[in-house]
Amino acid sequence: MFERFTDRARTVVRYARDEARTEGERPVGTEHLLLALLSDGDNLAARVLAEAGLRADDLRARVRQHTVRGATGLADADAAALHEIGIDLAAIVARIEESFGPDALREAAPAPRRRWGRRRYAGGPFSPRAKKVLELSLREALRLRHRHIGTEHILLGVLREGHGLGARVLTEAGADLDDLRRRVETALRTPA
User: Fold this and answer.
1) What percent of the chain has pLDDT above 90?
2) Mean local confidence (pLDDT), 140-151
3) Residue 47: closest CA among 58, 61, 37, 57
4) What is the pLDDT of residue 28?
5) N or C: which end of the chain has fewer CB within 10 A?
6) Is 78 in the same domain as 63?
7) CA-to-CA separations, 147 to 3, 126, 161, in angstroms, rounded
């Protein structure tokens, strides 16, 4: 499938893998694809997002809110959601540490690597949702009768998948996914 990708779209996929590695997360998620689309402001997807009033630094901060883990092992957004439904996370952590000792919830140190090779994520470098986005980008290109897959098709894939962190962050930033889809399709019809 990657043979249909334009050079810019291939670069986006490489950047997405770099984003995932930088954050220490193994599989590439839809949020990494979104952030990678924004890394090159000259591609069509980044221009459409900018024209819709979405700023790369704001979206990056929103992704970080969902992915940064605190002392409890939960992202800040998860802790806030629990608080909204009346669960006092600090009290739960205090009880656990009282019973099992301080830092009981801290992640264990990673196991040493095997000498005979690196162990890979069982699902490959992409999460199931990111794989779906890449598959949908191909479907979007075919639907539009394009012989290539560009950054715009990857964005359409993120929008069409609609349930990953990439789409959630766009929605939280005030974007209407259907409006973004229309903007991409309008930009594709507009001569350069």
Assistant:
1) 0
2) 87
3) 37
4) 82
5) C
6) no
7) 11, 24, 21
Within a domain: 184: yes
Residue-wise pLDDT for 80-122, tens only, equals 667 778 877 677 777 777 887 766 665 544 444 555 554 444 5
Task: Please tell me the predicted confidence (pLDDT) of residue 150.
Answer: 86
Residue 154 lies in domain: 2-68+125-189
Residue 118 located in a structural domain: no
Write b or e for each residue in 80-94: b if 16 or more Cβ atoms lie within 10 A of its Cβ, otherwise e: eeeeeeeeebeeebe
Sign of CA dihedral 21, 137, 46, 61: negative
The DSSP line for 32-91 is HHHHHHHHSTTSHHHHHHHHTT--HHHHHHHHHHHH-B-TTSSBHHHHHHHHHTT--HHH
Do both 60 and 148 map to the same domain? Answer: yes
- Phi, psi of 32, rounded to the nearest 5 degrees: -70, -40
